Amino acid sequence: MRGLIMASTEEGSARRIPTIPSVESARLAFALSVVATIVVGGAFWLLLVQPTAGGIDFHHIDNRIQFAGSVDRLSGELNNVTLGEARWAVTASLAFALVWGVVGAALLASCWDAAWHTGPGHDLAGKLLGVSLAGGGFVAALVEKLLTLLSLTTTAGAVTHRNGVLAALVVAFAWIKWLLAGLLICAVFVLLVSVATRASRRMLPSLDPNLPHDLPDAEVERAAEPSGIGVCCSGGGIRSAAFALGGLSRLERPIADGAPDVLSNASYLASVSGGGYAAAAWRIAAGTNDLPSRPIIGDPSDPDRRAKLEAHKKRPGGGSMDLFDHIRRRRHYLSNGPGGVLRSLTRVVAHTTFHFFLVVTTVFFLAWPVGRIIVGWAVTGAGVQPGVLTGGLTPTPIGPHRWFPPLLLLVVAGVAMLAYLGEERTKLRSALDVVIRVAIGMGLLVFTITIVLPWAVDRFLALLPDGGSDQIALGGIYGLIVNALWQFAKSRLQPVARYLGGVFLGIGLAAFALYVMANAATVDGLLSSPCLWLGAMALLIIVFIFFNPDRWSLHPIYRDGLTGTFASRWDDQAGIVRPLSPADEPPLAAYRAAAGPMPVVCCAAARQDSGQTGIKVLSMTFDPHAITVHGWGQNESGRPVHSPYQISHARFHQRLPKDPVGFAGTRRAVDTAERTVGYGLHTLMGAVAISGAAVAPSLGRMDMKSTNALLAAFNARLGVWVPNPTHSSERSTTPRVVNMFKEILGMYRFDDPNVYATDGGHWENLGLVELIRRRCRTIICIDASGDAPGTYKALHEAIDLADLECEATIDLSDALNGELRSADGARPKKNYGRGAIIYSDGKRSDLIYLKAAVAGNSPIHIRRYAAGDRRFPNYSTSDQFLGEEEFVYMVQLGYDAMDRALTEHGHVVAEAMIAEREAAPPGR
After folding, report:
1. Residues 158-162: what's their mean pLDDT?
2. Is the pTM of this model over 0.85?
């Protein structure tokens, strides 16, 4: 049974796969965006700037009139301006509003598909939103200008408002206009970046003839008879890798004298995270054709092993005696390669610094204009002079130009709310609901800009000394104070820590935003220069269009370390293991026809909801046939059903990011025609690196709530964005910087071109459920997960998920209540047990379960070592630097546990092998 097992349901099979707009449409949209920008800029120059050459500054006149808010505030601001000139300035401003309103609406309506294409319903909603922003802004401008023309008059030869009521109404509609116009500018700016990003992407080349193009014949009826043997290795970092390596070493040897071995006769070798280190190490070393003529891992219990190692050192040709020796000597995977740990740490610091720099640069880009606005005529009109950093931004009382606009919007919301309460369920009530939401949102936004932010910046400035160097020094003092407070309070905050990370991040970024606003409000602040803001804008545009955030995540560093330790090749003639360079590692699809078990790497795909399973991730598997996300759909009655999505390796390989030079400046050929910076995601070790991405902004069942945002902001990102199987595409779907901000905000839409893939343990940490999904007749589960001793937490989670996802019951109650349980703190009788898997159709499979624990029947030398090392074998998953003795004893523990399990239950495995051999077609 080699095909990927899926539930055969017509309910989940017919689902529309969204497509992505072509490069040509994106390029056309980009050209239209550039033309629209030129048209709007030209209209602004002709209508409002160019008249200045004749001595009439229409832009200054209109700005003073619309934001005055009162008769007194406008008095004296328009010296030497006639009433006719003021009316011409207002009329020219209205004409300009018509231009940007029409151009903006047309641009968003015509280019929305090319920019995003989120589906027919969403596309229409997006176009309507864009048209509403432009149309609503122009209507607000029309009302404002008509009120202005009605309000303008002359008093003592000076242009002013007729009365305070009209002046207040004018400024209220002016704020509504500019809020909508500002949102329109942001929408057009994002659209411009989006279409430029899509236009810059490459068309997919023709399919690689060396890769299989077809998906497997995946439909297998749910009632199929269980068949084959599956082996799964749990997550748990290097601890799990060592224990699994010992177990696989025993499986590589005959069950008994004259009997075949289990590993070469197994159908599947599934793995999660750390267990994948060992599973992939064996599978890569075993090769993509026939299996080696003898075991390649090595026997960790061999009493003559030390002498054999000494003899091997004297042999010419280098290499390692076996896979166990190869991994033992290179187990500190972050130390491999040039520069060792220092180089890895340098890369981590460089990547994290660049990542956080982008985050704070984005905050600076957004906050700086707000600082200019709140100190300008529209809000305070204080006219802060050079060198002033004294907290004096509001020398005059808050006038109607600041409090009337938000008050009017909130009054409109209140009136609409009263009308809403008296309406039945009609279209009018739906329209009133929209009015209430928009009015309250805009009212709060205007209130923030005109009242809250000026006050906050005014108070913030009072805390800052003059001069940038003094500000930096004071920032260090504040940092020490904050750290002291944190050290005092952290023990009290620990119970709610996962909710506080995002709060701390928000407070920190808000403080930085206030600092930027305070600098922008003056001319001698550290960050006050307009050129600095323009430089930040240019940098962000370039980064958003061309940069892939996975290139500076921690994933490539992690994967390079894993490859340097666990990727090797077995030289069958010389009988030694040699290191394998990343460029020589075969693609995962190459194992499709290989002898021995099919590798199945279990990962997790992030999502926003937790429906069906209660976990905010979906199971995602990488095997030689395809990459699959096990999602959920609905049948005709609306009930949820398992709905898997697949992408072939050929299409997956095409959609990976392509670039001639990697982030570290190295060039690595991975195929005949191209070089990729896809971090080898098409290889087995690349999939294992994804499966081991323990630290990521998406943690599934270990969700850290708002602290996820803190992890993302500080580049604790071992996960990676990969092509989404739900999408078909004619071009590369390279992730961009917007994906980085999706990680910070926790936005993981299932219909995005890319899906965020992380540690399989975020969904299920044993790999057991995926073997149950494939209906293996016998499953051997190697569990070295980080459970507290005696809790079997990972196993219970797998039991729950097997029921929810596969409608299968795992019955291991006899073993758990018997030999696997310890009494009164004593060691358990055994560290293995036998159970059963019962499917919903009544069919059964056998389960042999091993746990990384020292049992009463473990060898005396292992029990003696455990007595001297109280942590053994429960080393922390975060401890990735096990000593040699710790590593060796973990391997020996795994070997012994598997040996005893096969001695007692080997007949179950033998029966499965016989049945599989009898069912195999002739010539297999």
Report:
1. 89
2. yes
